[in-house]
Amino acid sequence: MTVYLDNSATTKPCVQAVEAVNRMLTENWGNPSSFHQMGINAMKEIIAARAAVADSLGVKSDEIIFTSGGTEANNLAIFGAVNARKRRGKRIVTTAIEHESVLQSAQELERQGFEVIYLKPDNAGRITENQLFEAINSNTILVSIMYINNEVGSVLPVGAIKKAVKRASAPALIHIDCVQAYGKININAKKLGGDLITVTAHKIHGPKGIGALYISKDANLTNQNFARTFGGEQEKKLRPGTECAPLIAGFGAAVGALPPVDEQTKKTQELNAYAKKALGSIDGVIFNSGEDASPYIINMYVPTFMRSQTVLQELSANYSICVSNGSACAKGKKSHVLTAMGLSNEIVDKSIRISFSRYNTKEDIDALVLALKELIEKHPL
What we know:
single chain, seven-stranded mixed beta sheet
């Protein structure tokens, strides 16, 4: 039996999501843009899913655009915001520990002549409110910062961005990547202050290939897409073309199946505490995640001569345990997050990420601890 502890990379689709996708493929498979009954049935499913995502963020349905996932949503938000504001300033503020889809977008804008400020974290991956206030000035047109870091779980002070923007009298739009926070923290877009918010389905037990971008009516990204596509009216012309109704319906079903946030947070905090106690009993283990990090993520140094890539391969091949050594999108490259935190090469090269979902148990932790102890004993420093 496989022990799956890589839920920050992707989650197991829940029964409700699988059933919704299957229903759309076998029953409501009409083109949602068609006016006959089959098309109408498919469109009803899309409308219901859009409403589910919108309600979960405390916004209106017409402020939700479906995308192919978090990466596209981040790109659409960043380039769309900059194109909409480029005559009003040149500064973009982000952090050095963002997802690659944000970092690489920022680097491209740098090449185009924009000034990009990358806020540096401390050794637990934390960014302070003071850093925001110091970086955001009257020339800032975009602030793009994640809510929860995907590698170490640090919770960034996104709630303070709006205040910093107002204090600087900046024309900035605020983009918050909520991919790792969605479904785990109560998110109200208006209270959070985000003009643009990214979420995705496969981190909340929905299907892969479908995400969403909240676009505030004040953001005005219409026709500002960085790579404008022509050919249809769908998704406010930002993503024209036939909607992927099965995945959209699966996304909506996954949202509907989410347990109460407070209840699930308590369970995950208990599992996190159990895991840290058990893992901390292994000599030489160092936790890279701070005490105030999201309970869903533990990043830790494994004291063995093997690099993290080999550790996770050994855990998978010999113990049927799935963990990660960082962002799945990085394809095994050295962690830019741990590097930005100023950790030594030894720690960067030999750290793994454990990430939980509502399906994990203490027995999963016990299996991981036993496997790590055996690996370290076989392959000591």
